[in-house]
Write a structure and sequence with these properties.
Pantoate--beta-alanine Ligase, Chain: A,domain 2; 2 domains; three-stranded antiparallel beta sheet; alpha/beta; six-stranded parallel beta sheet; Rossmann fold; single chain
């Protein structure tokens, strides 16, 4: 199947309007490209919800800090197009930076709530305002009925869900299960930065989260379990940003027994920052 690629809002809306005239429903899969099987799972899930799926590819400069890896972020548009064609995606929206942030652009979406949970926001304070700004634009520009997001970026999933609700954007945000390698490592575009040795070590994050979850289910205190996981990762050579248990819906620190829990971790292995999470 030939994939139609559009680069600006006017072209996007012309195509979308034709689908809507036909009464078709639409799912959008926002990405920054360098697609892997985790992204393709989102596409497949999108087709379960809607008649048409649009994949957006845009490396958003507003969610990268001064010393972060915007220039290093992997890009492979040709490979992305080939993968999406194989999934029968009818259209890719790959806007230019000027199409998203034209000259004079001066607005942003400021997030609190789950965006101020002391997790990613603690280490990347600019991040979620950048995410919320671009995602709100993509939601509005595509006019999609559904938006597919992976659970691997769990805080981001909660942020965009809250943002769409707060701004009354008529879209359903659908969280999709994390796609993992056979050894448990969560799929990520940044995994390609790992050396062969680091790639073997990287599975320790998932393994330690699983062990912590089992401890909590067996009655061990949440902080005791997560601190043990953090110490284990540090011993293995990781630089741990956090390993913590949070309310699965609000990301607040749990206060009561019986709350739905999510274990969330972020740690550096060499020059690569890895994140993961699991339910308890």
């Amino acid at each position: 199947m030939t994939v139609k690629i559009v680069r600006n809002v006017a072209s996007l809306r012309r195509e979308i309007s034709q689908w809507k005239i036909q009464g078709l429903t639409i799912a959008v899969v926002p990405t920054m490209g360098a697609l892997h099987e985790g992204h393709l799972d989102l596409v497949r899930e999108g087709f379960k919800h809607a008649d048409r799926v649009v994949v957006t590819i845009f490396v958003n400069p507003k969610q990268f800090g001064v010393n972060e890896d915007l220039s290093r972020y992997p890009r492979d548009e040709e490979g992305d197009i080939e993968k999406l064609a194989a999934e029968n995606v009818p259209m890719i929206y790959a806007p230019t930076p000027d199409s998203i942030y034209p000259p004079g652009f001066s607005s942003s979406v400021h997030m609190e709530g789950p965006a101020m949970a002391g997790l990613e926001d603690k280490f990347r304070p600019h991040f979620f305002d950048g995410v919320a700004t671009v995602v709100s634009k993509l939601f509005i520009q595509t006019g999609a009925n559904y938006a597919m997001f992976g659970e691997k970026d769990y805080q981001q999933l909660q942020v965009v869900t809250r943002m769409a609700k707060d701004l009354d954007i008529p879209i359903e945000v659908v969280g999709c299960q994390t796609r993992r390698e056979e050894d448990g490592l969560a799929m990520s575009s940044r995994n390609r930065y790992l050396s062969k040795t680091e790639r073997q070590q990287a599975t320790a994050i998932y393994k330690n989260l699983m062990q912590a979850a089992e401890k909590i289910r067996s009655g061990v205190n949440q902080q005791t379990a997560t601190r043990a996981a953090s110490r284990s990762l540090t011993t293995l050579g990781f630089k741990v940003d956090y390993v913590t248990a949070r309310n699965a819906e609000t990301l607040a620190v749990p206060q009561d027994e019986g709350e739905p829990l999510r274990l969330i971790a972020a740690a550096w292995l060499g020059k690569t920052r890895l994140i993961d999470n699991i339910g308890v």
